[in-house]
C-alpha cells in the first residue's frame, strides 16, 4: 500500500527559478540599450539629418528639394495644402464642395512616382459615391461608384442636340458621288492636334476651300453677263469681305483691260459681246460690280431646293440673322461650333488611334443633320473599359476626369499657376 507520506518524500523543494544574466543585471542592460539608441540617433542625425525619418525616397517630381524636408514639412505635422500651393498654386475643384480635401489625401509622397500621380477611384468615390454639395440642384450625378454605373455622357442625353448654327451634312460628304474633287474620309477634315488629345478646329481655308471656292462673277438676276473673270471672296464677315472685293475689282480692272472693251469675233465658240463695263469713273465701276458680286455671294438659302442645287456660297452653310434693306450688308449668325464636347472629361484620340473612326463614330455616314452630335455613347466605351476585368482598359475616375481646373480653360489655368524662380527653389 502507498501512503501519501511516502509520496511526499519524493518532492524536492530546493528547485526554484534562478536569476539569469539579464534578470540579475536588467538595469545595466536597460541603460546600455538606451545609450546605444541615443548614440545611433546622434549618428543618424549628424549623417542623414531629417532624411532618417523618410519612409521612402523622394519622388522624381520633388527631387529638386533633395533632403530639405523643411520645404514641405512642419515639425511633427502632416504636409499642409499651403506648402503645396507655394509651388503649384491654388487649385480649384468645385465652388460647391463642402470640404476641400488635403493634397496628401490623394497624392502620397515617398512611395514612388506612381503613388504620387496615379490616383485610384477610392478618393473620388468617397465624395461622389454619395455627393453632398452646397448647390441644392447639382448639375452632375450625385451617386457614381463604378464606371459601369456611370451616367450617359451629357451631349448624348435625351433632348440634347448640336446647337451649332451651321448647315453640314456628313452623309453627303462621305457617300455622295457628287463630290468629285476627292473621295472624302474622316481624316480628310478631322486631324489630331499635336498632343493627340483633341481634334484641330475645322478651318475653311484648310478643309473646305478646295471644294467650295467662293468665286463670283457678278452674273445678273436676269442672266446678263458678268465679269469675264471670277473673283474669289475671302471667308470672313461681310464687313471685311466688301473692301476685299473692292480691292480685287481694281486689280481685275488693271490686269484685264478687256473688261472695258467690246469683243467682236466671227470665230466659232467665241461669243460677240459688248464691253463688260461701261463705267466712266472708278467709283461707278466699283459701285456697279460690288452690288452684283454681293448679290451673287449672299444669295438666300432655299429649303425647297435639293441641297446640291443650291449656290455654293455663304448661305449654303451659314445662316442669316433677320432681314436687311437693299444695299445693306447681311448679318451672318455666329456658328457657335463647340471646341470640345466633353467639357467635364478628358479624352485622347492618340491613345485610341489603333481603332478606326467607324468603331466609335459608326453613325456618321447616316448623319444628315447638323443637330446630330455623332459622339460615341457610354456603351461603346464600356466594351473596353470594364470594371473588375484583368484585361480591361483602366476604369479609374482619373482615366477621364481631372480633379484640378475643371474649367479646362488654358487662360484660367495660366492665371492660377504660380511661377517660382529657380533661385527661390534653391534657397528654400
What would you report as the Rg, rounded to the nearest angstrom? 39 Å
Coarse shape: elongated
| Most strands sheet | 2 strands, antiparallel
Q: Looking across the biggest beta sheet, what order are the strands in? A: 1-2
The helix-strand sequence is: HHHHHHHHHHEEHHHHHHH
How much helical structure, as a percent, in the residues? Answer: 25-40%
Structural class: mainly alpha
Total of DSSP H or I helical runs spanning 4+ residues: 17
User: How many β-strand stretches?
Assistant: 2
Task: Please report the distance between the alpha carbons of the first and last residues.
Answer: 93 Å
Low-confidence sequence ranges:
none
Strand content: under 5%
Q: Mean pLDDT, rounded to whole units?
A: 82
Describe this entry's structure for a reader.
The chain is mainly α and 428 residues long. The chain has a domain at 208-317. The protein is built from 17 helices and two strands.
Question: Would you summarize the structure shown here?
Answer:
The protein has 428 residues and is mostly helical. Helices cover 30% and strands 1% of the residues. The termini are far apart.
Highlighted features:
two-stranded antiparallel ribbon; 17 helices; 2 strands; 30% helix; mainly alpha; 428 residues
Question: Secondary-structure map with pairings?
Answer:
Elements: H1 4-8, H2 21-24, H3 26-47, H4 81-88, H5 103-106, H6 113-117, H7 122-128, H8 170-175, H9 186-189, H10 204-208, E1 215-216, E2 231-232, H11 238-255, H12 282-297, H13 314-317, H14 357-360, H15 378-381, H16 410-416, H17 422-427
Antiparallel strand pairs: 1-2
Helix pairs in contact: 11-12
Amino acid at each position: 500500500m502507498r501512503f501519501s507520506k511516502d509520496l511526499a518524500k519524493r518532492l524536492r523543494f530546493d528547485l526554484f527559478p534562478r536569476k539569469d544574466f539579464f534578470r540579475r543585471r536588467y538595469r545595466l542592460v536597460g541603460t546600455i540599450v538606451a545609450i546605444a539608441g541615443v548614440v545611433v540617433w546622434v549618428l543618424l542625425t549628424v549623417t542623414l539629418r531629417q532624411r532618417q525619418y523618410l519612409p521612402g525616397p523622394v519622388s522624381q517630381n520633388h527631387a529638386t528639394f533633395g533632403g530639405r524636408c523643411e520645404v514641405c514639412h512642419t515639425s511633427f505635422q502632416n504636409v499642409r495644402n499651403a506648402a503645396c500651393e507655394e509651388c503649384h498654386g491654388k487649385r480649384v475643384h468645385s465652388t460647391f464642395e463642402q470640404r476641400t480635401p488635403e493634397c496628401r489625401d490623394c497624392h502620397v509622397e515617398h512611395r514612388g512616382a506612381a503613388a504620387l500621380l496615379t490616383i485610384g477611384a477610392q478618393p473620388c468615390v468617397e465624395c461622389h459615391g454619395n455627393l453632398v454639395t452646397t448647390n441644392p440642384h447639382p448639375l452632375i450625378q450625385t451617386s457614381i461608384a463604378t464606371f459601369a454605373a456611370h451616367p450617359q455622357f451629357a451631349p448624348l442625353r435625351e433632348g440634347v442636340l448640336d446647337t451649332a448654327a451651321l448647315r453640314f451634312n456628313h452623309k453627303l460628304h462621305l457617300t455622295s458621288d457628287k463630290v468629285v474633287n476627292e473621295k472624302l474620309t474622316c481624316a480628310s477634315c478631322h486631324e489630331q492636334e499635336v498632343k493627340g488629345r483633341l481634334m484641330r478646329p475645322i478651318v475653311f481655308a484648310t478643309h473646305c476651300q478646295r471644294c467650295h471656292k467662293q468665286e463670283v462673277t457678278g452674273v445678273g438676276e436676269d442672266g446678263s453677263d458678268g465679269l469675264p473673270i471670277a473673283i474669289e471672296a475671302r471667308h470672313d464677315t461681310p464687313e471685311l469681305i466688301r473692301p476685299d472685293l473692292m480691292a480685287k475689282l481694281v486689280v481685275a480692272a488693271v490686269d484685264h483691260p478687256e473688261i472695258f472693251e467690246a469683243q467682236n469675233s466671227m470665230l466659232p465658240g467665241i461669243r460677240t459681246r459688248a464691253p463688260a463695263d461701261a463705267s466712266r469713273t472708278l467709283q461707278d465701276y466699283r459701285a456697279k460690280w460690288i452690288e452684283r458680286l454681293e448679290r451673287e455671294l449672299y444669295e438666300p438659302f432655299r429649303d425647297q431646293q435639293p441641297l446640291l442645287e443650291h449656290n455654293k456660297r455663304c448661305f449654303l452653310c451659314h445662316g442669316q440673322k433677320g432681314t436687311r434693306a437693299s444695299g445693306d450688308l447681311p448679318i451672318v449668325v455666329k456658328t457657335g461650333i463647340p471646341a470640345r464636347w466633353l467639357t467635364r472629361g478628358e479624352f485622347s484620340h492618340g491613345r485610341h488611334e489603333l481603332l478606326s473612326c467607324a468603331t466609335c463614330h459608326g453613325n456618321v455616314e447616316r448623319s444628315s443633320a447638323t443637330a446630330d452630335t455623332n459622339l460615341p455613347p457610354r456603351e461603346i466605351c464600356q466594351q473596353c473599359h470594364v470594371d473588375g476585368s484583368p484585361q480591361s482598359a483602366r476604369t479609374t475616375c482619373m482615366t477621364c476626369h481631372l480633379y484640378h481646373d475643371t474649367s479646362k480653360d488654358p487662360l484660367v489655368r495660366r492665371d492660377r499657376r504660380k511661377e517660382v524662380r529657380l533661385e527661390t527653389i534653391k534657397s528654400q
